[in-house]
Amino acid sequence: MLPRAQVRRLLRCVPGKERLGIYRFLPFFFVLGATMEWIMIKMRVGQETFYDVYRRKASERQYQRRLDGAPESK
């Protein structure tokens, strides 16, 4: 783990402090989020992506609710 002084020095190297303040980090997090979303959509582990598993599990839950006789809600 980096010492606190090194972290502060690294954060000061990010441009835009006077104009954007703390929001100067926003583009980095936007790119990180977009990259994670792309990985969840495109990258396959075995034969399935994250969203394949999500859809399957949601379908299984809906089917189980119908079997239990509970009213359907989202």
Automatic annotation (TrEMBL):
Q: Write the protein's name.
A: Small integral membrane protein 4
Q: Which InterPro entries match?
A: UQCC5 (IPR028183)
Q: Which PANTHER family match?
A: SMALL INTEGRAL MEMBRANE PROTEIN 4, UBIQUINOL-CYTOCHROME-C REDUCTASE COMPLEX ASSEMBLY FACTOR 5
Q: What UniProt keywords apply to this chain's record, in alphabetical order?
A: Membrane, Transmembrane, Transmembrane helix
Q: Which gene encodes it?
A: SMIM4
Q: A Pfam family matched by this chain, by name?
A: UPF0640
Q: Where are the transmembrane segments?
A: 21-41
